[in-house]
Amino acid sequence: MKNVKRVLAxxxxxxxxxxxxxxxxxxxxxxxxxxxxxxxxSYNVAGLxxxxxxxxxxxxxxxxQNQTSIGTILNASGADIIAxxxxxxxxxxxVKPLTNYKLTTNHTGGVxxxxxxxxxxKSRIYSETRIPWEKSYxxxxxxxxxxxxxxxxxAVLAIGDxxxxxxYDIHADAYGDAGSKAARRDNFRQLAALINENYEKNxxxxxxxxxxxxxxHHKTEANPDGDDGFTELLIEGAGLKDAWTELVNIQxxxxxxxxxSAVIEDKGASYTDYWGKWDSVEKFLYKDGTNGVTLNAENxxxxxxxxxxxxxxxxxxxxxxxxxxxxxxxxxAIVFFSYTAPADYxxxxxxxxxxxxxxxxxxxxxxxxxxxxxxxxxxHLGDLFKYVK
Length: 389
Hints:
- By secondary structure, this protein is α+β, with helices and mostly antiparallel strands.
- The chain contains 12 helices and 12 strands.
- The protein has one domain (31-388): 4-Layer Sandwich (Deoxyribonuclease I, Chain A), CATH 3.60.10.10.
- The protein has a 6-stranded mixed β-sheet.
- Strand 7, helix 5 (178-202) and strand 8 (206-211) form a beta-alpha-beta unit.
- Helix 3 (63-75) crosses helix 10 (307-313).
- The N and C termini lie far apart (112 Å).
């Protein structure tokens, strides 16, 4: 009987050890991970001066008031990160209501001198870097992109506990003339090169947003460069995914990055059909890091913000029958990302720094750009007189 008990005890011990070993193997194969989510808004806030008001053509648009209303809406959004474009001379009106977003990039000022791009966040913003486009087109007309140092705003942002991303806010060259399209293609080439360079160095996941001034569905068999290299340079060249394409065109319509036929048949492809509604110029691009951090777009949509939205937030009476007015000529793009990271993941933050405002540099830059713009205007006086007339 004693021998039987000993055999049973040995068998039980073996079974327990086998069970522990199995658990150990399972844990090794399926390590625990950090998970979380981040919400981001990208919005061209149309903070340019209302030039038409100077000639009496538009006496109704109050840009400063619109910026205050936009700030009110964004502050109530609950988004973790807000990226804006055309945040120019009415910056103080925009930021005054943004009491939930005390952490921001350093404003570069109005026109001339400012690039119009800023990030507002609930966590620290690191390594803020502004890179103007190497090519732009248009002085008096065609978007007048040469008069403003638009380009890339790069920063490193925390999207969770110890989880960071390389974040890019851009504003590409505007308009559809040949010169602007060529400049925009070069913008995407420059952006892709910067993304690839940073990605190779640090391996962080990437999020790119902003006003791209082109849509992916403009690339067709008849016009293979209709998207100005957006697909070729950013989707293929930089390995990025587009949130709208992934969630809507692929998942809902069975399309791809080169086939938009089903959504076009359903929604129509005229300017008024797509502008601020589907595959518009406001985008969110993304890709996983090489450090084990993954990103997945869970939801994406466009939202037109109006003065009625701001009135509702402020609990103000809205006159019955009054038509709501859009606060910008762009819709906001809103995305929700989920992320995963290894449980033992720890970002190396040694190279990350918070950039303090440098007022002397800002003033010097504005003076430099003012004289550059003045020189360009003098070289296009004929075009200027035609434009004023």
